[in-house]
Amino acid sequence: MKNKKTTSASSAVLAVRKNIVVIGLGNVLLSDEGIGVHLIRKLSEHQDKFPSVEFIDAGTAGMKLLHLIANRKKAVIIDCAKMGAKPGTIRRFTSDDVQSIKKLNHFSLHEVDILQVITLSKQLGECPGEVVFFGIEPESLEPGQNLTKTLCDKIDVYKTDICKELD
Question: Domain total for the chain?
Fold first, then answer.
């Protein structure tokens, strides 16, 4: 006799992955390093305007990023980026536009070179059709949970630029 209360994996409800993912990266304990996370929180407030977009606060996700972007139509990744520009500058680029100069300390499993993750995703055949980065030049990477005034004053500009990418 079978137990009627037993459920199988096939009857479990699985979450549907959306075609587009917007991922905010960063460490919110290091001032402007957390800009990606702060922006995702703001963008998530407008989820209803973007039904085909999943907004993810990935913090210091490390290799988990590989699974977050897998088999999506498009991935938009927001992070602070040392570009030698004026603090607060935002730039849009693709992985083909830049070369990584990141030196990994290998002190943490969360530490990862984003471009290497994209390369691995391509090798696995799981890379999104389009990967876009928004890099924001930090003013400070000192310990602290708040963004600098320079970046705070531009949050709405950043949101507008990123939302244009989602239309």
Answer: 1
pLDDT tens per residue, range 82-108: 999 999 999 999 877 765 555 544 444
CA distance 82 to 45: 28
Joined tokens for residue 150: 């320079």
* pLDDT tens digits along 107-154: 444 456 788 889 899 999 999 999 999 999 999 999 999 999 999 999
Kindly give the pairing relationship between strand 130-136 and strand 90-93.
antiparallel
Please state the pTM of the whole predicted model. Answer: 0.82
In angstroms, the CA 33 to CA 36 distance is 8
Residue type, position 92, single letter = R
Task: State how far the Cα of 2 lies from the Cα of 20, in Å rounded to an integer.
Answer: 42
Q: What is the CATH number of the domain that holds 126?
A: 3.40.50.1450
Show the domain range for 89.
17-166
Contacts of 27 (CB under 8 A, 6+ apart): 33, 34, 59, 60
CA–CA gap between residue 92 and residue 132 (Å, rounded): 7
Report if residue 4 sits inside a domain.
Answer: no
Predicted local distance difference test score (pLDDT) of residue 68: 94
Does 7 map to a domain? Answer: no
Is there a contact between 93 and 38 (Cβ–Cβ < 8 Å)?
no
Specify if 5 maps to a domain.
Answer: no
